[in-house]
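[Q] Does anyone have a clean structure-token version of this?
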Amino acid sequence: MLNLKRIPTGALLGLFFTALFLFAAIFAPLIAPYSMSQIVGDVWGPISAEHLLGTDSLGRDLLSRMIYGARTTIFIAALATALSFSLGAILGFMAAVVGGLFDMVVSRFVDLLMSIPTLIFGLVVLSVLPSTIVTLILVMGILSSTRVYRLARAVAVDVNAMDFVEVAKLRGEGTRWIIFREILPNALSPLVSELGLRFIFSVLFLSALSFLGLGVQPPEADWGGMVKENKDGIVFGIPAALIPAAAIAALAISVNLVADWVLTRTTSLKGGRD
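[A] Here you go.
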């Protein structure tokens, strides 16, 4: 059973805000006071009892769009992270176990992708392809998987050289068994930390793409797009663009605190078993 008293304060804060964002994303239609695109007031209206965060550049309730934006941002970032983690880890493990030509071809292809700045690559691809949710998830997941591949391959090369893996090979176990039963359990610690980092990267990447007009398209709400929609208000001292920007930063910091705590806990438990 998890003992909250033994969890560091930073990790508790991270868990609280991460859970808060997830709650908003899951139950957005139930807790949002207005619909996502409904115009309910004046342009950049002030904070009031009816509009707890004011209104945006079109007179829509900012709190409602923040809640729906949490759903869009977290949903896309989570799916892109799952894709990048699965693709990068499996290919990295396979390259370490199979080796030879397969390892060389995949590694050089990954080097090619990593030599191109990720944001520029994403902008070029999305400027040609339609900016749909599926396209965003695929582009973000594939580009992010190169970092996961590098880490997974490096860890798997070390594990693959250990005696228990050699014994499994001598028993005649196949590649799938070695990857999922021998290498994966012994590579979880760095991969768990990387999972959190990939999610943060996906959130920031999506927000940057939406801010530049190639991410989530209006009238759908996501936090990066909301910063773009309300950025002109900063000149007049209107903080509507700063609220979604603060939410992006808070989500990134919260997930990072949780990932660091999970990594520390996993490493200490493994050390205790050793």
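[Q] Thanks! Anything notable?
[A] The chain has a mean pLDDT of 87.
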